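Internal ticket #5521
Category: modeling
Description: The requester needs a full-assembly model to guide mutagenesis choices. All entity lines are attached below as received. Residue total reported by intake: 208.
Assigned to: D.W.
Attached entities:
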Amino acid sequence: MQFIGQGAGRSRRGAWGAAALLVAGTMAVSGCISVNAPDKPIVIELNINIKQEVIYRLAADAGNTIESNPSIF
Amino acid sequence: MDHAMHRSVFHRFVLAGTAAALALGGFAPAAMAQRDPAYDAARAGGQVGEKMDGYLGVVGGGTPSLRAMVDDLNIKRRAVYSQKAQAQRATVEEYAFTSGCLLISQTKPGEKYQAPDGSWQTRGAGAPQRDPRCP
């Protein structure tokens, strides 16, 4: 009965030690790494799959579309 | 008396003709609708710009009414791009991007456009910076 109590006390001390290490580690990490927000907007290029040959094929039709819809272009 | 009546009939014809001409004249600009003055002013003032993807973008913060106008125009653009892309057996993105190339070329000096690096540029007298794939 006494033995079990001692064991429980030891494991509690171990848990406190682990928690202290974790806090110390977190503080160390947060002290080393500083994260700054970028001052320019992040641009994700989504058009990399568009082929030049397709653009050339569509150019004439797109030009006509722009010309015939002057209110939105 | 007879002469007066003839003249009134003639007048009526002239009036009818004028009304018809006015009606036709009124229809012609509606079919060839031009830009809304608010849109034209926002372009000229650099508050909106042409993006590479074929849509309009708000330059800077913008106002709620400006953002609403840009959203409305972009929805209309997307509808047109979708219809035309389907007819050309292309994707909406391909058709929109091609249009973006042309729309950036067509910007007037002082208007804003998006450069290949994503930044807003003011169109100068020379050619704009465009994607190397642009025709």
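Resolution: model delivered.
Comment from assignee: Residues 1-9 of chain A have pLDDT under 50 and may be disordered.
Ticket closed.
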